[in-house]
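Lab notebook, design round three. We kept the backbone fixed and only want residue identities now. Task for the bench partner: fill in a sequence for the structure below.
Input C-alpha cells:
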C-alpha cells in the first residue's frame, strides 16, 4: 500500500506540473518574462486618446504580468494604422513580447479587401479593450454647416489622415450612403495635426474620436467652438444625448444596414492584441494581466486625469467580436465595398 501511495502521489504531482494551468506552466511564463521588455506598437501618432491609452497601459500592466516585464511604447502611424497591423503580422516577434493597437475598422477593411491590408485580424490574439471608440464629426463654429442637413445641402471640408483610417472612412461612407457633401483634405499625420489645420482655417471640421476631442481640445467643447453634428455608434453615447448617430440618419433599411455594418467597429474600440501564434500560456497570462489592469485603481486614476473613458471588454469576448465584424455577409459586403473603398478619393 505504501509503495502504491507513493506512485499515486507521484502521478498526481506529475499531472499537476504538466497540466495546461499547472505550476510548471505558470513558472515558465514568469521565468520567460522576468527581465524582458514588451513593446506596444501603436498605429497612431503621439498625443491623441489611443496613444494615451497605450501609455497608461504600458505604465501599469507590467506589474500584473508574471515576471513583471517592463513595457515600452513605439508609435508606428501610417496608412490608417495598416503599417502597424502589417508589422504585427509579418515582423513582430511571435513570443508574447509584442502588443499591437490598430484602427477598430481593421476587421472590416480585411473583409472588404481594402488595399494595403495584409493581415488577418482573427489570427491576432486579442487581449482586451480599454474603451469603445465613438467617432464624431465636428465643424468649427465659423463653418456654415451646423448640422447634418447643412452637410447634405452644401460642400464642406474635413481635415483627413490616411485613406484607410476611420477618420476618412466614416465621412466618406456618409457621403456615399446618405448624400452628405464632405470633401476630405488628406495628408495630416493624425488628429492633433488635423485639428491644428481646422484651427488655421485649412478645413472646416474633422472626424475623430470623441475621447480624442475631449483630450486635445476640451476648451472647444466647453465654449462651443466645435459643433458636433453626428456620432458613429449604434446608440447615442451617454455624454452626447443630443447628437444623432449615423444609423439614425438612414432613410431606408438598406442604408441602415450599410451604416450599422460600418459603425459596428466602434465596439471593437481602443483594443490591444498580441501576434498570431504566440504561445497559449503567455496569451492567457497577458489577458489576465490586462483584466487586472482595467481594475487597477492607479490605472483608473491615470485615465481620469487624462479625461478619457473606460469601458473594458475581456479578450475572449473581443476575439469573438472581431470575428463577427470580419464575417460580414457576402451580399452586404458587396454593396458596401464600392462605397467604403472610395475613402480618401473624394
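Proposed sequence:
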Amino acid at each position: 500500500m505504501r509503495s502504491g501511495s507513493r506512485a499515486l502521489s507521484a502521478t498526481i504531482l506529475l499531472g499537476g506540473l504538466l497540466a495546461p494551468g499547472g505550476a510548471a506552466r505558470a513558472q515558465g511564463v514568469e521565468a520567460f518574462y522576468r527581465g524582458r521588455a514588451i513593446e506596444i506598437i501603436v498605429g497612431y501618432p503621439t498625443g491623441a486618446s489611443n496613444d494615451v491609452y497605450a501609455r497608461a497601459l504600458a505604465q501599469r500592466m507590467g506589474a500584473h504580468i508574471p515576471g513583471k516585464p517592463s513595457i515600452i511604447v513605439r508609435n508606428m502611424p501610417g496608412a490608417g494604422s495598416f503599417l502597424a497591423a502589417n508589422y504585427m503580422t509579418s515582423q513582430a516577434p511571435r513570443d508574447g513580447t509584442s502588443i499591437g493597437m490598430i484602427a477598430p475598422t481593421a476587421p472590416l477593411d480585411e473583409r472588404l479587401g481594402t488595399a494595403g491590408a495584409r493581415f488577418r485580424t482573427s489570427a491576432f490574439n486579442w487581449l482586451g479593450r480599454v474603451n469603445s471608440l465613438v467617432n464624431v464629426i465636428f465643424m468649427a463654429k465659423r463653418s456654415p454647416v451646423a448640422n447634418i442637413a447643412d452637410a447634405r445641402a452644401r460642400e464642406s471640408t474635413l481635415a483627413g489622415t490616411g485613406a484607410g483610417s476611420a477618420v476618412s472612412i466614416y465621412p466618406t461612407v456618409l457621403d456615399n450612403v446618405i448624400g452628405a457633401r464632405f470633401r476630405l483634405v488628406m495628408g495630416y499625420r493624425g488628429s492633433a495635426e488635423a485639428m491644428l489645420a481646422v484651427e488655421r482655417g485649412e478645413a472646416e471640421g474633422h472626424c475623430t474620436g470623441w475621447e480624442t476631442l475631449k483630450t486635445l481640445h476640451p476648451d472647444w467643447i466647453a465654449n462651443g467652438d466645435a459643433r458636433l453634428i453626428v456620432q458613429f455608434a449604434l446608440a447615442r453615447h451617454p455624454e452626447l444625448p443630443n447628437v444623432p448617430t449615423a444609423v439614425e440618419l438612414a432613410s431606408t433599411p438598406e442604408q441602415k444596414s450599410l451604416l450599422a455594418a460600418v459603425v459596428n467597429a466602434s465596439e471593437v474600440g481602443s483594443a490591444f492584441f498580441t501576434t498570431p501564434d504566440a504561445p497559449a500560456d503567455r496569451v492567457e497570462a497577458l489577458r489576465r494581466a490586462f483584466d487586472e489592469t482595467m481594475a487597477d485603481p492607479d490605472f483608473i486614476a491615470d485615465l481620469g486625469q487624462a479625461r478619457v473613458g473606460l469601458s473594458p471588454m475581456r479578450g475572449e469576448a473581443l476575439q469573438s467580436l472581431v470575428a463577427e465584424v470580419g464575417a460580414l455577409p457576402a451580399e452586404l459586403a458587396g454593396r458596401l465595398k464600392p462605397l467604403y473603398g472610395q475613402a480618401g478619393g473624394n
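Keep this in mind before ordering anything: The two ends are 83 Å apart (CA to CA).
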